[in-house]
Design brief:
This protein is mainly beta. β25 and β26 form a beta hairpin. It is globular.
Length: 441
């Protein structure tokens, strides 16, 4: 096919009508979302906000009583954040590694075009940068290459003086001393992580247990619903646990299509995660979710979703696994691409944001109208979600339908501000109480 015809076909596919959501947003959030019958088609719904970045002086819109400013700018695809004990902030500047076996076929081609339009198909800086706000004015005056020559890094965790970095293919360990602004050592590989030439969901996140003995690692699936072969899904769509001392790897929980953010709920000490669910079942399916994670628990993927709703596309079927699939705790809207997660412990954003979870929603591609493209807060009571979510940071999509930014990782700074990594705007945003609100607290 001639290049011009390819361009025309691509344009037609990326503006294809597809189906439009019928459910109101309120029906897609909470403990009991509406789960309608699926809608399938040969060509999936493709509706993605074209990544443009922020015009000069523009920024997202904070909720009433809050303010936002750029904590650090001119980054290169910032994805994930980690706050060190001294207040320094680490940001993983990263994108997908080469995946020569991924994106094959017509649907794979459409998906790759969508990634380019979304601003995700950019070279990986393979770097972690250190941001320091020594004078406490809410702007990082120091921006230092902290670790370089990594391999699509994402999650970070500090245990004592050992800094763990989740590359796309391995868990790495580096020696860190408080106040360090860069690390030059090659590091030590603790364990291999599922990767290879397919590596569909490439991001790997990590947090440590409270006693520091165990690392928990998220690994997304190698497909949408197993279409690349279930033999390609070993130790994927899962949270793995790694013994910090020996490097031994074993599954902790499975059936989680693409888990990313993880955090310990402050009151109960339970592990929670946010999960991106499957695509191509229509604009009203399937809700992404926030859930506590049970050791040995199975959450449905690929055989079912939201408990026992069977996905007929998967072969062979596994009714035995479907029967024990755990229903997630809290739906986060259909196709919102919820990635970032941090609990509000230490937050200085006011009483409305004291108990609950902040979630970065990267934004949809397989839904009309758009969903996600914002940061939300899910209130908690007694260690469980309680009530409707609140918008914290919006305005990432322009009135023309362009993505000015896309939020990913979220973290609470040492001074209690909410930090948000924006991988299209190439900014880390800082959300704090508005001046008049801060004076009343």
């Amino acid at each position: 096919m001639r290049p011009t015809r390819l361009v025309i076909l691509a344009a037609l596919l990326l503006t294809a009508c597809g189906d439009t959501a019928d459910l109101p947003d309120e029906a897609t959030f909470g403990a009991n979302p509406t789960i309608p019958e699926p809608t399938t088609s040969l060509i999936p719904t493709v509706n993605i906000a074209t990544a443009t970045g922020w015009p000069a002086g523009a920024k997202p819109t904070p909720a009433a009583g809050l303010a936002v400013n750029a904590f650090a700018e001119n980054l290169q695809h910032p994805r994930w954040l980690h706050v060190l004990p001294n207040g320094d902030v680490l940001v993983a500047e990263s994108s997908a590694p080469p995946k020569p076996e991924d994106g094959k076929g017509i649907k794979g081609w459409i998906y790759s075009l969508a990634l380019k339009r979304a601003g995700s198909a950019v070279p990986s800086a393979n770097r972690i940068t250190l941001l320091r706000d020594a004078d406490g004015d809410g702007v990082a005056e120091t921006k230092t290459p902290f670790l370089t020559n990594l391999n699509s890094p994402f999650g970070m965790a500090l245990v004592g003086n050992e800094l763990f970095v989740a590359n796309t293919d391995a868990m790495m360990r580096f020696t860190y001393m408080e106040g360090d602004t860069h690390i030059t050592s090659a590091g030590e590989k603790v364990a291999d992580l599922p990767a290879g030439p397919l590596n569909h969901h490439w991001t790997k996140n990590v947090i440590a247990s409270r006693d520091g003995r165990t690392l928990y690692v998220t690994v997304g699936s190698n497909s949408n619903v197993g279409e690349n072969g279930l033999d390609k899904e070993t130790n994927r769509a899962a949270i793995l646990q790694i013994d910090r001392a020996t490097g031994r790897v074993q599954p902790f929980a499975s059936g989680l299509r693409n888990p990313n953010g993880m955090a310990w709920e402050p009151q109960t000490g339970a592990l929670w995660t946010v999960v991106n669910e499957r695509d191509e079942l229509g604009s009203d399916l399937v809700p992404d979710y926030l859930t506590s994670v049970q050791e040995g628990g199975f959450y449905g993927w690929p055989y079912s979703y939201w408990g026992q709703h069977v996905d007929s596309r998967v072969s062979p079927q596994r009714p035995d696994l479907v029967a024990r699939a755990i229903v997630p705790d809290y739906a986060l809207g259909n196709h919102t691409a919820s990635l970032g997660l941090t609990f509000a412990q230490g937050s200085a954003l006011g009483k409305a944001y004291q108990t609950g979870a902040f979630i970065g929603q990267h934004g949809s591609w397989n839904r009309k109208p758009f969903s996600g493209y914002k940061v939300i807060f899910v209130p908690f009571a007694d260690g469980r979600p309680s009530g409707r979510p609140k918008d914290v940071l919006t305005g990432f999509v322009s009135s023309e339908g362009d993505a000015l930014g896309r939020p990913v990782g979220v973290a609470i700074s040492k001074r209690g501000a909410l930090l948000v990594a924006d991988d299209v705007g190439n900014v880390v945003w800082r959300v704090s109480p508005a001046p008049s609100t801060a004076m009343r607290q």
